[in-house]
Structure formats: C-alpha cells, structure tokens
Amino acid sequence: MKYENKTVWITGASSGIGKATAHEFAKQGATLILSSRNKESLEVARAEMPNPTNVFVLPLDLAKSEEMNSKVEDALRMVSKIDVMVHSGGISQRSLAIDTAMDVNRQVMEIDYFGTIALTLALLPHFVKNQSGQFVVITSLMGVFSSPMRSGYCGAKHALHGYFDALRAEHHKDNISVTLVCPGFIHTNISKNAMIGTGEKQGTMDQATGAGMSAADCARKLVHGVSNQKAEIYIGGKEILAVYIKRFFPALLRRMMKKVKVT
Questions:
Q1: What are the C-alpha distances in Å from 177 to residues 80, 84, 128, 223?
Q2: Residue 236 burial (C-beta neighbours within 10 Å; 0-12, 13-18, 19+)
Q3: Which one from 3, 153, 234, 244 is the annotated catalytic residue?
Q4: Of 203, 205, 200, 167, which Cα lies nearest the Cα of 185?
Q5: pTM value?
Q6: How does DSSP assign 103-126, residue by residue?
Q7: Mean pLDDT, rounded, for 59-81
C-alpha cells in the first residue's frame, strides 16, 4: 500500500493506459481523481476501481487550456492535497506529413502539449506550497525518436520532453519530481482513435499496437517506476531497443526508420 494517504490525479483515465494506471494506483491504496472528457465513461471506470469510495470524478477537456485553473480549484475542493499528477490524456495521428492538414497538427499539439502544460502550470503552485509533488507524463517512445506517419504526434511528444526536462531542473529544490513514461506498442485504442490527415478517426487497429503489451502490464511497470521516482521509464517490447540505437548508433536508426513498418 505504497500510496495509502496519497492522492493521484489522472487524465485520460476513462480508458487505455490511464484507466489501467488508475486501477494500479488504487490497488496501492491511493485516493484517485479521474479525468477525461466523458463523465459517463469516468463513472464506469470509477465503479471498476478496487475502492470506489476513494475515487472522485472530474471531467475536463485538454483542448480547453483556459479551463485548467478552474479544474485545479475543483480538484482541491474534492481533496486537501494532490501528491501525484499523471498526464495520460492525449490523441495520436496517422498520416504522412504532406497529407496532414495544419488544423490537425494544431489539434494534436493543443491536446497533447498545451493542455498538458496548462494543467501543470495550474497545479504547480500547489506542489510548490507543499514542497512536494510528482508529475508523471505519459509521452511515448515517439518523444525520444520519430517514425513515419506520426509527424504531428512526434512533434508534440518531443515538446513534452523538452518542457518537462526544464521543469524538473527548475523545481528540484522544491522537492518536485518529474517522471517521463515512454510506452511503445501497448494494446489500447490509440490507433483506432488517431486522427488521419483530414482530422477524421483512423478507425482501425495498427497491427503492432494490437500485438502490443497489455495496458495492465504497462500500468504495473509504470507505477513501479513512478514509486521509485525514475526520471524516464521505457515500457514495451523490442521496440525499446530503438532508444539505445538512437543513443549510440543514430545513423543506423535513421536508416531503419526509412524502411520500418509503422502501422
């Protein structure tokens, strides 16, 4: 029960990695705040948690950055203190750069980047006041290296790494930690919900995603790394090797990415 008497707030908590992560934190005794756009889906997720009486539901839309200050106020009316903020909400993209409308790039960036940092900035004074807190940012291996058909998504995830690496350095003195979680292929609906170049949903499961690690297994690895306050966590299968290939053999990775099957 590592998280007994701790409160964990999770965006994207109605499905996928976010929901599985909420379940894992609940098993560790945490009080939860679950957020996503859909209140009904959040209520379903709440009912499935090990101890629903310790779970609060707070709908929010990451595309509406201007609402994040009021959402933090709402959260702090539910609980007296927030200990961990898990940024799991987001959207992906599947299309060639040349075929991707600028509005799609902006929407991905608005949700995955600007909404996330707006919520971070709204909550940050609470962490500073308490001289404690942890931001857990579920980015992607696409925040470490890039592959075809995900240009806008890669751009947003790389931006998160740049922002939160700086935030970590600025606020270590306030006992605030940052953990960047980089999943590879995890079996969720991320590819089905991904936007294509026109802004419509792809609607199909990528083969690699369908064959990926379960969200439950991902969540167990995630919470273990978060509890140890790791700076970065890589979760997945053999695709994780690309992180180290980029680090030590970047030219090789560039050649690989020209040939790799990415859907």
A1: 20, 9, 11, 14
A2: buried
A3: 153
A4: 205
A5: 0.96
A6: HHHHHHHIIIIIHHHHHHHHHHHH
A7: 98
C-alpha to C-alpha distance for 254 and 246, rounded to whole angstroms: 8
What pLDDT is stored for residue 214 in this prediction? 97
CA–CA separation, 71 vs 93, rounded Å?
Answer: 27
Which residue ranges form the domains of the chain, and what is each CATH number? 7-259 (3.40.50.720)
Could you tell me how far CA 119 lies from the centroid of its own chain? 13
Q: Is 205 helix (H, G, I), strand (E, B) or coil?
A: coil
Query: Quick one: pLDDT at residue 260?
Result: 81
Query: Where are the strands (E) in the chain, listed by range?
Result: 7-10, 31-34, 55-57, 84-87, 133-138, 176-183, 186-187, 213-214, 232-235
Question: Would you state the structure tokens that stand for residue 88, as one six-digit string?
Answer: 């799991």
**Cross-strand bridge partners of residue 201:** 195
Residue range 222-245, pLDDT digits in tens: 999 999 999 999 999 999 999 999
| Cα within 13 Å of Cα(69), Cβ side | 2
- Residue 36 identity (one-letter amino acid): S
Give yes or no: 113 in active site. Answer: no
